[in-house]
Amino acid sequence: MCGAEVITLPEGVRRVAALLQTSGHPHAPVMLDDAARTAQQAADALGVSVGQIAKSIVFRRKLDDAAVLVVTSGDQRVDEKKVEAKVGGGKRLGRADAAFVKARTGFSIGGVAPLAHAGPVLVLIDRSLFRFDELWAAAGHPHAVFKLSPVQLERLTQAVVADLAVDMDDEKQALQRAITLVRLRSQTVDSAAEVPSPCISICRMNAATDLCDGCFRTRDEIAAWSSAGEAGKRRIWRVIDQRMDCLEGVRSVARPEV
Question: Strand 66-73 and strand 122-126: pairing?
C-alpha cells in the first residue's frame, strides 16, 4: 500500500464517469468540498461565471409521462412554452417532483447530470450555452461536476439545440411586475398589526440570485417566516426593500447571505 487515501465515488458519479470514459471525453468528474445544488453555488466553488454552469431542469410530459430534461445556462430561466412547442405534443408540461426525477434519471435533484440516465430521457439543449467555450455540469451528485464544451455536450447527449430560455425583455417585465406588487404590499408593513407576507404566489428560486422571484427572500427566510415574530418579519421586509432597490439598479447588486 502506498498510503494514498482511496475515495469511493457515489454510484451516480461512477455511472457518469464510465460513460465519459467510454466516450473518450478528456475530463473526468471531480468532487467538490461543498455541495453545489444551485448554479450559483457551483459557480462560486469553481471560480467561474454562473452562466458557465450547465444546469439540468426536468419536466414531466403529460402526453406520455416522459421525462424531458432541458440543459440551460445557469444565468437563464427556461421558457416552458418554448419547450412545450418543441416536444409537448400539444399538451402542457408538468413539474417533475423529486421522486419522478430520481426514478427517471437515477439522480437526485441538485446533482442531475445531462447524461448517463437510468432510463429514457428526452434531452434538449438551450442555445444560450454556446456563448461560452467552457462549461461545467453536474456529474450525478451535488458534490460532483465535470468540465466540457457546448459542442461536447451536444455530442455526448445527441440532444436537439434550440432557443429555450425566457427572452430578456420578458424577464425584465416579469421582474418589474413582481417588484411593483411586492412594493405595494411593503407600504402596509409599518402600519399593520400583523406583518403581511411578501409572497405574491410566484414560487420560483432564481439561480443567479438565490432569491425567490416572487418575494425576493432566501430559502432560509421563507422557511423561517411562519415562526418569526413581528419584529423579525419587519427586519426581513427591510432586507427585501434593499434587494428590490438593487435589482432595479439603484445600487450595485450583492448576493444575499444564505
Answer: parallel
Please give the grid coordinates belonging to residue 217.
427572500
Contacts of 106 (CB under 8 A, 6+ apart): 12, 15, 116, 117, 118, 119, 140
Fold category of 11-162 in CATH: YbaK protein (3.90.960)
CA angle, 204 as apex, 51 and 13 as ends, to 5°?
A: 55
Per residue in 177-221, pLDDT tens? Answer: 899 999 989 989 988 889 999 998 888 887 667 899 999 999 999
3-state class (DSSP) for residue 225: helix
Q: Enter the C-alpha cell of residue 13.
A: 458519479
Give the C-alpha separation, 165 to 75, whole Å. Answer: 10
- State the cell numbers at 132: 461560452
Structural domain spans, the chain:
11-162, 168-247
pLDDT tens for 71-125 read 999 988 899 999 999 998 888 898 899 999 999 999 999 999 999 999 999 999 9
Q: How far apart are the C-alpha atoms of 72 and 61, rounded to whole Å?
A: 18
Q: Cβ distance 218 to 211 under 8 Å?
A: yes
Burial 163-192 (b: 16+ CB within 10 A, else e): ebbbeeeebeebbeebbebbeebbeebeee
